[in-house]
């Protein structure tokens, strides 16, 4: 039950030496401030790094052929081989947990020779032969027109979807793009859409916008690829891990291409899900470090409060003796000291949370007008769970800080306390 007299006594006791109380409270304020800021900074770093993966389905792997390192079925080691379009249907039939299996072929690229021409403008760009599903694995915003579809695949249509970076280099500002033609390695393709990548997968954001997507079948026909597949992008269902499925993928590919079952070098792969899981583990560790450092700093403030409460108990020895002589129970004395300690800890801690929240809000306001797509830091924040955790830590800290002084207070004998001057 709320007792006005008790709370007036608590406030009077803490304000009797206000400068000492403020210095003591600052230790707790600073500790909880550091804890919240560290957690928010870790979240901002996590958001920034994951933003780089925002353009790729993370439960994916990329697979390509390499040189066979072991002889098998009369075939020598060191031989080269290629994936075929039939491998795609085989994987889908034998591993139903796979959501997308996208065969891909690639031409040219950044740093290579100019392979795309439009009028007098030329450029070196990555050109991909793809199926429509690739937009689910590398999400992109279609800024005009459309993406490739199965009508394009079935009709071997020579159409292209270009990135905003390609448009800037090959077209004038404001010039109509849809319906125009670009020449890729001497073959004309009609532009049917433009895109902007949502993320860069941790790569170069600018170069991610300088890519060209054409139908896989038209690519194979135009550049004499036949049934050859350069590499594959494979994504598992949400309920499955591509890391756990890739051994089955390799077994099927090795069997179809007469590769020794123990030849681990014949198939190259990059497991994006595995790398993403490592990054998640890193951020869990960073959060643990933030809690560890913040609680240590907070602990120093709590020790300061405990020391001050011991001094307060010593200064109030005569008062405690009088209260004991008048019939105050040990629990009422203990409760009074504990309430003062908890009150001081919680109030100073809440001030620290408020100050940290204000700083985080200012940072977010400053970043609101900035393009954070290429930054490794974005939207620092703390959720309500962190606030409630901080409050629980404060309550426990206040209780611990007042426990020893409270025990000392109830050990004071009324006669001895009354003799103290």
Structural features, described:
With 421 residues, the chain is of the alpha+beta class. The chain has two domains: 194 residues, no CATH class; 214 residues, no CATH class. It is built from 14 helices and 14 strands. The strands form two sheets. Strands 1, 3, 4, 5, 6, 7, 8, 9, 10, 11, 13 and 14 form a twelve-stranded mixed beta sheet that branches. Strands 2-12 form a two-stranded antiparallel ribbon. A hairpin with a 2-residue loop joins strand 9 and strand 10. Helix 2 crosses helix 12 and helix 2 runs antiparallel to helix 13. The longest helix has 44 residues. The chain starts with a helix and ends with a helix. The mean pLDDT is 81. It is found in: Cell membrane. Belongs to the ABC-4 integral membrane protein family. It is a multi-pass membrane protein.
What portion of residues is helical?
Answer: 40-55%
- Hey, roughly how much beta strand do the residues contain? 15-25%
Total beta strand runs: 14
Number of domains: 2
Tally of individual helices:
14
Taking all residues together, what is the mean pLDDT? 81
Radius of gyration over C-alpha positions, nearest whole angstrom: 34 Å
Question: What oligomeric state is this?
Answer: single chain
Shape: elongated
Order of helices and strands: HHEEHEEEEHEHEHEEHEHEEHEHHHHH
Terminal Cα separation, in Å? 34 Å
The computed structural class is alpha+beta
The major β-sheet equals: 12 strands, mixed
Low-confidence stretches: none
Main location: membrane
Transmembrane segments: 21-41, 289-313, 342-364, 384-404
Subcellular location: Cell membrane
Domain ABC3 transporter permease C-terminal: 292-414
